[in-house]
């Protein structure tokens, strides 16, 4: 059993390395892997029609350069008891393509929009199960359609709640009990 788990980890490391190399060459950025998997931080020439436009650092009126900031969330990584089954669930029910493991695959493309980034107290009950350390919030266009689609698939979804000037929210859990919040912005 240990040998199987080791081979599985090695295979995942190789797949991860291949995906990161593909992303590195596609976006012209150097990426770093954990532990002994580090790739050389190379900066290959960005393609002529780069998907990530470079933004010149703005200057304050005092002449100081503004702090560089991240442009968005580049990935969400979490542990799962059965990663393959859980990945299929997210693809089937929420339409999220997983990180490709081959050259022909496509990565999930998000739409531009607001993203909440909020640390909570470790004692917060907002996520439900106190053993869950994270919750993901996905933006949706049509809350009623999404809720109906999930319920038709036998997935328990709370009735949406409306918050003026913010939008509509609902909650569900993936098959491993991880909390998911859906948000339809106003």
Note the overall shape: globular
Class computed from helices, strands and strand pairing = alpha+beta
Order of helices and strands: HHEHEEE
Q: If you compute it from the alpha carbons, what radius of gyration comes out, rounded to the nearest whole angstrom?
A: 20 Å
For the biggest sheet, the summary is: 4 strands, mixed
* Strand residues, percent: 5-15%
Number of strands: 4
Q: Segments where pLDDT lies below 50 for 5+ residues?
A: 1-14, 16-53
Distance between the first and last residues' Cα: 51 Å
Structure, described:
- It is a single chain.
- With 186 residues, the protein is an alpha+beta fold.
- It is 26% helix and 11% strand.
- The chain has three helices and four strands.
- A four-stranded mixed sheet has the order 1-4-3-2, with no helix packed on it.
- The N terminus is likely disordered.
Q: Keyphrases for this structure?
A:
single chain, 186 residues, alpha+beta, 4-stranded mixed β-sheet, 4 strands, 11% strand, globular, disordered N terminus
Question: Can you give me a brief rundown of this structure?
Answer:
With 186 residues, the protein is an alpha+beta fold. 26% of the residues lie in helices and 11% in strands.
């Amino acid at each position: 059993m240990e040998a199987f788990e080791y081979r599985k980890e090695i295979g995942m490391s190789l797949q991860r390395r291949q995906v990161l190399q593909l992303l590195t060459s596609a976006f012209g950025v150097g990426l770093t892997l954990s532990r002994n998997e580090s790739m050389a931080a190379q900066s290959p020439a960005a393609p002529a029609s780069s998907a990530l436009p470079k933004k010149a650092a703005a200057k304050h009126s005092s002449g100081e350069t503004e702090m560089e900031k991240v442009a968005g969330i580049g990935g969400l990584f979490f542990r799962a008891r059965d990663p393959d089954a859980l990945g299929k669930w997210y693809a089937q029910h929420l339409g999220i393509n997983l990180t490709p493991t081959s050259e022909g695959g496509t990565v999930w493309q998000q739409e531009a929009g607001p993203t909440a980034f909020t640390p909570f107290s470790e004692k917060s009950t907002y996520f439900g199960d106190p053993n869950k350390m994270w919750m993901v919030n996905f933006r949706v266009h049509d809350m009623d359609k999404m809720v109906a689609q999930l319920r038709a698939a036998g997935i328990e979804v709370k009735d949406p709640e409306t918050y003026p000037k913010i939008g509509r929210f609902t909650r569900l859990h993936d098959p491993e009990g991880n909390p998911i919040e859906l948000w339809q912005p106003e």
